[in-house]
Amino acid sequence: MRGLRRRLDGLYPGPGSGRNAPGPSGSAPEPGRLPPQAGEGAVCSSLGLPGPRFVHQAKARAPTRHLPSQATHTCYMSFGPLGGGGSGESREQLCFLLVPQKGDDQPLRPVFFLLQEDYDKAESEASKAIDKDGGDVKALYRRSQALEKLGRLDQAVLDLQRCVSLEPKNKVFQEALRNIAGQIQEKVRYMSSTDAKVEQMFQILLDPQEKGTEKKQKASQNLVVLAREDAGAEKIFRSNGVQLLQRLLDTGEPDLMLAALRTLVGICSEHQSRTVATLSVLGTRRVVSILGVENQAVSLAACHLLQVMFDALKEGVKKGFRGKEGAIIVDPARELKVLISNLLELLTEVGVSGQGRGNALTLLIKVVPRKSPKDPNNSLTLWVIDQGLKKILEVGGSVQDPPGELTVTANSRMSASILLSKLFDDLRCDAERENFHRLCENYIKSWFEGQGLAGKLRAIQTVSCLLQGPCDAGNRALELNGVMESVIALCASEQEEEQLVAVEALIHAAGKAKRASFITANGVSLLKDLYKRSEKDRIRIRALVGLCKLGSAGGTDFSMKQFAEGSTLKLAKQCRKWLCNDQMDAGTRRWAVEGLAYLTFDADVKEEFVEDEAALKALFQLSKSEERSVLFAVASALVNCTNSYDYEEPDPKMVELAKYAKQHVPEQHPKDKPSFVRARVKKLLAAGVVSAMTCMVKTESPVLTSSCRELLSRVFLALVEEVEDRGTVVAQGGGKALIPLALEGTDVGQTKAAQALAKLTITSNPEMTFPGERIYEVVRPLVSLLHLNCSGLQNFEALMALTNLAGISERLRQKILKEKAVPMIEGYMFEEHEMIRRAATECMCNLAMSKEVQDLFEATGNDRLKLLVLYSGEDDELLRRAAAGGLAMLTSMRPSLCSRIPQVTTHWLEILQALLLSPNQELQHRGAVVVLNMVEASREMASTLMESEVLEILSVLAKGKEGPVARAAAASLGKAVEYGLIKPSQDGE
C-alpha cells in the first residue's frame, strides 16, 4: 500500500492545508505516509478519499469551520499522474478499494470513473452529487477534472471558480485554476493562429460524421478564403495542406472536391515553386483527369486551377526559371509541356465527359498560342501541332450521337475549330502553314479512303470543323479528290445523321463566293428538295440555312440578287418561325439564327425582323442560354440590323468612271439610309438588346472570340450614336459591358468600344455611368483613342471625355497622368482643327489642378505658359475660355508663374485687358482672377498693372453688379491700396 500511496502525490489536504501547511509539530507530514493521530477513515484519507462516515460527519459540521489536518485530513485528488504511469496491479488494487458497493457511496463514484479514465461517467456522477448539494466542493473539483480531460475547459474553469469562491484560501483550487487558465489562454492563442485554423478546417472536412452539415460547408468556404491571401496559402502549403487536399479530392464528393480545387487555386496562384510542388504531390495526370468528370462545377473548377498553374509556369519561363519567392526550381518549360501533353491525351480518352473535353480545349486555346504577334517564339504552337493536331481533329470530326464515338457537344466541336484557327494564325511562315495543311489533308485522307461510309462521314465532319476555323485549310481539304462530290451525294441519303453531316458541310462550304456559285448551280435544287420533303425538322432547318447562305451571297449589294424577288423574305419568315418555336431544342434553333445572320444583309429582311417583337425576344433569350455557339450568329445579325459594319460613301467620280468602264458598281438599298437605321436602333433598344449583349459579354467561353467581341463593340457604338439613346444604354448595363470589350479583342473592336465609352462619358455623369472603381478602368481605353492612328473624331471625343474625368477627382487625374496622356494632349493643343485644339486645351485646364502638371508649366525652357497666354487672346471664344481658365488655375496654385507672364509675350497686357473688357462674364471672371493673382504675387507686378489701363477697367468692374467679377476687381484694387500704389476714393470705394 505504501507504493500505491506514493502514486497519489497529487493529493492535497483540505482547507488551511497545502504544500506549506504545518503538521502537529509545525512541519508538513511526509508525503505518502499516514498522518499521525489519524482518525477513522485514515486509509481512505491517505488516498485522498474520505470514507462514507467521514462524508456524513463533514456534512454535519458547519461548512465554515476548519479543523486541523491531523483530525480529518480531508484531501482533494489530482489525477494528472494517474493517467499515464503505474503498474496495472497497483491500478487494479486501487480500483478494487474504491468500487462503490452501496447507494451511500456516491462520493466515491466520480473518483472511481476518473481512475478508470471514463471521464463522461465521472462528469455525470459528479453532476449528480452537485445537484444534491450545490456547495459540494469535492464534487465540483472532481467534475472540473473530468471536464478538463474531456477538453471542455470553459466549463471546467467555471467549476474551479465556484470552488475558489467557496474556499478562497485553498491553494489546491487556486493552483488548479491558474493551470487551467493557462491552458485556455494557450488554446485561444493556438486557435487564433492560422495553423490551428487550417488544422481545424481539415478535421471538419475529413470527418465522415460531418457529412453534408452546415459546419462542413462553412469550413470549406473558410479554407478557400484563407487560400486567397498569400500568407494563408503559404500556411496551408507548409501545413501538409496539399496532401490533405488530395484526400479531399479522393473522396469523390463534389462539394469537397470543389473546396479542394478552389483552395489549390489560391496555393498555386502566381507562385511557380508551389505550383511545381503541387503537381509533384498530386500528379499531373491526376489533376488533368478531374477535368473529365461529369459534374460540371467540378470540371470548371479544375479548368480554373489548370489555368492558374499554366499562368504560374509561363511566368516562370519568362523570369528565368525562378518562382515568385526567388527559389531556383526545375525548368518550368518542361512542366508546361507535360501539362499540355496530358491535356492532349485527355481529348481522345473514352469516358471523358463532353464538358470536360470542351474545358480541355478551352485551356489549350488560352495557353498555347502567343499572346502577341510581336513575340517571336511560337515553338509551343509548333510542338502542339506536331504532337496533338490529329487529336484535335479527332474531336472536331466526331459525330455527336453514334455509340463508340467520343462524347462531344456542339460547343466542343466549335472549341476545336477555334483552337485550330488560333494555331493556324500563330504560324509565322509559309513552310509552317504548309506543314499544317499537309497534316490536316493526311488525316482526312486516312478516313476518307478505305474506311467505308463511317470513315467518309468523319472526314466530312472534319472538313466542316476546318471550314469553321482555319478556312484556308478547310477549302484545301474540300478540293481533295471526291470530297465535294461525296458531300452532294450524302445530302440525298435516307439516313438522318448522314444528311445532317453533309448539309452542314455544304452550308460551311458555301462561304466562298466561287464555291457558292458552284453550289448554287448544283446544290440549290437538292437543298430545296430537302427543305420541302424531309420530315425531320433538324434536316429542314439546316437546308433552309443553306438556302439562306446562298441567297445572301451578294452581301449588302442591292443589285446582286441570287434568288427571285421575295424569296429571301419567305426564307426569313420561316427562320423567325423556327426561332420562336419553344418546342425545339436550343441547338436546332441556333440554325434559325444562322439563317437570319445571312439574310439580314437584305434591308427588307432587317425591317421585318425588328418589327417582329416575338422573334427579337426569342433571339435575346437564346443568346443568354447555354448554347454558346449561337453568339457569333446573334452578333452578326445585330451588326446587320444596325448597319454598324464599315461603309464608306463611294467617290462620285470613281462611280462614273466604273460605269463608263462597264464595271459593276455596288448599290445601297433604299432602306439602309440613316433614317431607317436610326428607327431600327430604337426598336432594338426597346426590345432589350443591351441586356442581352451584356450577358453575351460576360460569357466565359472560347466561342466569344476576338471577332465576336468586335461585332458586339460595333453594335454598342451604333446604339450610343444618338445622344437621347445613351441613357437607355447606361440603364441596361451597357457602360459596364463596354469596359472589357475596350480592353480585350481585336484592335478595331477595342477602338470601337473605347469610342462608345467616350460618347457615354461626354454626355452623362461618369460617376453614375461607371460607379465605384470601374471609373478608373475607363481611362486607359480613352487614352488609347489619342493615338495618331485614330480618326480626328475619335481624338476629339476622347479629349472631351478625359476633360470630364479630370474634373472629378485628383485620383482620376493621377490615373490619366500614369497612362502618359499629357504629352499627347499637349500635342493636340497645336492641332489645326479648332475643335480638337479647343478640347485639348480644356482637358489641360482641368489637369492643371494636379501638382505634376503645375511642375511642367513651372519648369524653364518650355513654351507651355506662353501657349496658354496666346490662346487667351484668340478669336475662338471657347478656346479663350479654356486657356484663360487654365491660366487662372495655374497662377492661383503657383504664384511664381505670375512674374513670368510678361516675359512670354509682349502682348500680355493687351490680352488681359481684352479679357477684362469681354462682354462674356466667364471670360471677364477669368481675366479678373488672373489680374488678382498677379497683383497678389508681387508689388512690382501690381505697380505695372496699376500704371496701365487695367486700373481704370478694374475700377469700373468693381462698381458693377455684385458678382465674382466685381469681387475679384475690388480685391485687386484693395491689394493695390495696401501696397500704397493707389489711394481709395473719398466715398470709400
From TrEMBL:
SUPFAM superfamilies cross-referenced by the UniProt entry: ARM repeat, TPR-like
Domain UNC-45/Cro1/She4 central: residue ranges: 395-550
Pfam families, per database record: UNC45-central
Compartment(s) of residence: Cytoplasm, Perinuclear region
Keywords from the UniProt entry: Chaperone, Cytoplasm, Developmental protein, Differentiation, Myogenesis, TPR repeat
Amino acid composition bias (Low complexity), ranges on this chain: 21-31
Cellular component terms per the entry's GO annotation: perinuclear region of cytoplasm
TPR repeats: 137-170
InterPro entries, A to Z: ARM-like, ARM-type_fold, TPR-like_helical_dom_sf, TPR_rpt, UCS_central_dom
Positions of the UniProt region annotated as Disordered: 1-41
Residues annotated as transmembrane: none
GO biological process, alphabetically ordered: cell differentiation; muscle organ development
Protein name as catalogued: Unc-45 myosin chaperone A
Originating species: Sus scrofa (Pig)
